[in-house]
Amino acid sequence: DQQVKQNSPSLSVQEGRISILNCDYTNSMFDYFLWYKKYPAEGPTFLISISSIKDKNEDGRFTVFLNKSAKHLSLHIVPSQPGDSAVYFCAASGGTASKLTFGTGTRLQVTL
Amino acid sequence: EAGVAQSPRYKIIEKRQSVAFWCNPISGHATLYWYQQILGQGPKLLIQFQNNGVVDDSQLPKDRFSAERLKGVDSTLKIQPAKLEDSAVYLCASSLIRTGEVEQFFGPGTRLTVL
After folding, report:
1. Minimum-distance CB partner of A97 among B45, B97, B108
2. CA-based angle A27:A42:B90, to the nearest 5?
3. Tens of pLDDT, residues B52-94
4. Residues of chain A below pLDDT 50
5. Which residues, 6+ apart, have CB-to-CB distance to A64 below 8 Å?
6. Residue B53 in contact with partner chain A when CB distance is under 8 A
7. Nearest chain B residue to A47, by CA
């Protein structure tokens, strides 16, 4: 039973354009949602999070949108840069010091 | 601030052998997690410690996997005996216990190959 789903295994975007990564979840008890970025042979690195009581959180080039009624969130990267090429994981949490439930990841390729 | 340290980075063993992984979390982080990431999937929690007590080990295959966190700091994860399907990256993460803080900090992982 996959509670967090990333249906697009890969995405290719041109440098300078917007990258939109999507994530769906099924468990309405999740309190927080997080995005992690992963380079090969490294551990996941935290990017940005959003509480379930908000619908938007912004940090520099990264914005996360949450639609609770649709159980859907998205990560927008504007403008996309070649260094953004990595695998992006969506994760959900029940709160402080709770386990993370991850999606399967989306590989983003930013081309020149 | 030093990050989460893990060793070894890579390990190759034969099936039915045993293996152990070590993790040193970020100083002051009371909560420590071990995740298993199989190729093509997202990380999946194996066990969670708070200080040196187990919070959640519901997904740990206890017939072959064991973990401990002595003195509430370092942790070791052991597999004995290993099976082919244990081939994966084993990630250690740590976090603070602070209201509203949900971010977990991950180490580089140990890539295990079971032949």
Report:
1. B97
2. 60
3. 899 999 999 999 999 999 888 999 999 999 999 999 999 999 9
4. none
5. A33, A35, A48, A49, A50, A56, A57, A58, A73, A74, A75, A76
6. no
7. B103
